[in-house]
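Let's practice the habit of predicting before peeking. Look at the sequence and jot down your guess about where helices and strands might fall. Then scroll down.
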Amino acid sequence: MKVLQLQPLTADLLPAVLELDRSSLGKLWNADGYLREIDSPNSDLLIFQLPQMGAATPAIAALGCAWAILEECHITILAVQPDLQRQGLGQAMLVALLQAAQQRQLERATLEVRVSNTTAIALYQKFGFREAGRRRRYYQDTGEDALVMWRGGIHHPEFPAVLREWQEMARDRLRQSGWGIAEWNIDDAQL
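Done guessing? Here is the structure:
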């Protein structure tokens, strides 16, 4: 079993994150953008780091970023290495971002997703996100529309129990793909 480490992104891991950004997001952000997020008290920038197996640069399996804006969690990035997709890593990262939002006592979460990204849309719907609108020609590279998706209730007293159920569901999905998580709880990851 390959064991993943959930942790906040640190500057020493920028080369690996920039490679993930290039391969999964088409160079969405540059190093300065990631450094701003690392330094921002309103940003949760999380990674699943792969165990080092003799490589000089640690590999990053997945990346997630969310901003705390007033009472809202705005998920800006959720990316998985292309060769590791469909193994539960995106699901696990989404749960980690929602857990961070709940710990910040935010009320709801929102995000934009390409209308053609049916896999991501299905993932978000699985976790209670609903379509709230559409941004026309949002993606500059293709002119594609974005769906705006929204999920409320993060601040409700029952939401931590829902998160624990989702965590276990994500953990089971990862196990099926041969993955384990060394640390899962956001508190354990020392954010």
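How did you do? DSSP finds five helices and eight strands in the chain.
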